Amino acid sequence: MPDFAFAFLDCEFGGLDPEQHDITEIAVIVTDYRLAELASAEWRIQARPERVTAEAAEMSGYGPERWADAVPLRRALGEFVALLPSGKTVVPAGQNVRMDVAFLERGFKSCEIPYPFDYHVIDLATLFYTWSLVVGEPVVALSLRQAAITAGLIEGPVPHRAMADARLTLDTFRHYVGRLAPRPPSEAAPHPEPAPG
Questions:
Q1: Looking at the domain 4-181, which fold is it?
Q2: What pLDDT was estimated at residue 158?
Q3: pTM exceeds cut of 0.85
Q4: How many H-runs (helices) and E-runs (strands) does the chain carry?
């Protein structure tokens, strides 16, 4: 287990299709296998305007003024890789992280940079749902917002900003990991009785 490190990711996109939309923002918080923070960084990406929908731009705050310091995707991904600890198996982690991975896989391939991550992923939604089963508390949604509200970490809406979301995801992940400590069987949530056959 000590050979693992985690990259808590959040990306913002110009839409939901990696083939039609560009990454507009990347944030990462790198942790060791105990979730202790090692490094963090964020980048605004020089996206092609025609590959950013109006809806996505409004949601993430994408626009010429905020993106004046944007960098090419190749530069951001190169700096991203340099941030990762050498000799470790780096696992992508996040909320609905498969979406981020799909865009990043395409980005690394288009920039001809070797993909730096393990093929596994760690997803907050899975941890949140597992916690709900253990404690017997149903969840109304598997979103970052719902997981963080249930954890008591926030009360209102979550702004769609890459680093804010990556940070909230890591904090929420730590919260639920801490709540899944082993308990005596007598304290565990009871199993539902099987339905009569």
A1: Nucleotidyltransferase; domain 5 (3.30.420)
A2: 74
A3: yes
A4: 6, 5
